[in-house]
Sequence to fold (133 residues):
Amino acid sequence: MPKARQFSVRVANKPGELARLATALGQAGVNIRAYLACETKEASLIHFVVDSPAKAKRVFDRLATEYAEKDVLLLELPDRPGALGEAAERLARAGINIDYAYGSFAPGARRVSDVLVVADVAAATKALRGLKT
Fold:
């Protein structure tokens, strides 16, 4: 299971913030692999998984945007009923909590891409070894 770096960025909850960040990342040649945008009472929180963490850091620093970094687990599952349940069950048996997760698939695709945020990426990777993906 590959790991990736996730950036969590807090921005004002107003129109254009996702556009501003996504455009700046794109102009710097950073490809967004996954994202999740959530609102909170005070602001919006956007999680980005990108192909070039070093470039993304430079973009966020240049924009004077506060961010936090975290290793996350990237999981590719077959697009079939029960696939996510099998993965989650393995983690549960290993005592690994999924703090939060997000995923997506393209219509007609045979695979589902998931980002799992767990406290111990190495232990989660070990628990998922041999999973049919």
The chain has four helices and six strands. Residues 17-27 form the longest helix (11 residues). Residues 119 and 127 are 13 Å apart (CA to CA). Residues 3-70 form a domain with the VC0802-like fold (CATH 3.30.2130.10).
